[in-house]
UniProtKB/TrEMBL annotation:
Domain DUF7041, chain residue ranges per copy: 1-67
Organism encoding this protein: Nephila pilipes
Family matches, as InterPro entries: DUF7041 (IPR055469)
Protein name, UniProt field: DUF7041 domain-containing protein
Amino acid sequence: MPTFWEDDPEFWFYPIEFQFVMAAITNESTKFYAVVAAFSSNALSCVTDIVISPPTVVANKTLKDILPGRIHRV
């Protein structure tokens, strides 16, 4: 999995999703943990609230929706 691209967080999720498809990973929790593991410390600091208390449903989609807006504010 590529390390997080702080200069283009929205596009970074595309190759990640391709890797999930190729590896037949469909479980949202598995996707969430894989994505969080690839984040830089700066990206993690932008979504600390989600990492500490992940949503019970579609956590990975939540990260994809929220992170780009938060990281560009830093």
